[in-house]
Amino acid sequence: MMLLPNQSQFSEFPDFPSNDLSLIPTQYKGWRISSKVINGKLWVRWQHPQESFPRYGCSIGEAGISGTVSHIKLFIDLAIRLEEEATKKHRY
Fold this sequence. Notes:
A hairpin with an 8-residue loop joins strand 3 (41-47) and strand 4 (56-59). By secondary structure, the chain is of the alpha+beta class. It has helices spanning 7-10, 64-91, and strands at 27-28, 31-38, 41-47, 56-59. It starts with 6 loop residues before the first helix and ends with a helix. The chain has two helices and four strands; from the N terminus they run αββββα.
């Protein structure tokens, strides 16, 4: 379930039409992705499948929502690769 800003909070974001929020996926490769308004800024947060809270996050910047989501997907892909490498090294 994705957290969306409520209507009164959303009015603070004239640059982010509501239909752009649909660009934020709720999951990517098992990682949960959510959005939240923090101190008047829209943030996208993501959490590891084995954790109960979103440890990572970034605000929507100049790249916009789609650019930020692409950036997050790269971070998730990197984390998955690093976990796989750590598992391989731990086995040997």
